[in-house]
Amino acid sequence: MEFESSDELISSIATNVMKCLMRCGLFEKLDGLLSPEDTSIPAQRCDGTYKLSESILVAAGFDRAELDDIFGVLQSKGGNCDCEVLYNVAETNRLKASYWRGRAAKQIVRAPHIPPSRPN
């Protein structure tokens, strides 16, 4: 099967990629890092990259080529970094629920991304 564009490729693999991400528990594990159920555990902050997602996926056995496909699918669904994977791609999670509880109470609860460090 030949694809005319990367968008066609991403579209053709998206359903199966999402099944694999659900099976390996990416969304639950990422939520556990960004919005731990145990409030005594400090939440990690999104730095505007896929650093946390990548570590979860590598530990689950995905290789670099697979990661490129996975991140292409996540980007096509509005997940352009770790927190956006939860806000825009995952159906339900604590991070998204906390955000909307805060919005409903007229509080700002979504922490901005930490800018990636830049070499001097």
Structure write-up:
This protein is mainly alpha-helical. The protein contains 6 helices and no strands. It has one domain.
The helix/strand order is HHHHHH
Count of all domains = 1
Mean pLDDT: 89
Low-confidence runs: none
Biggest sheet layout: none
- Note the overall shape: globular
Which band does the percent of strand residues land in? Answer: under 5%
Whole-Å distance between the termini?
Answer: 46 Å
- Kindly provide the radius of gyration, computed on alpha-carbon positions and rounded to a whole number of angstroms: 15 Å
Percent range for helical residues? 55-70%
Question: Can you count the helices?
Answer: 6
- Give the total of beta strands: 0
Give a brief outline of the structure.
The protein has 120 residues and is an all-alpha fold. It is built from six helices and no strands.
For the structure shown, list the relevant keywords.
57% helix; mainly alpha; 6 helices
Secondary-structure blueprint:
Blueprint: H1 6-24, H2 26-34, H3 51-59, H4 64-76, H5 82-89, H6 94-104
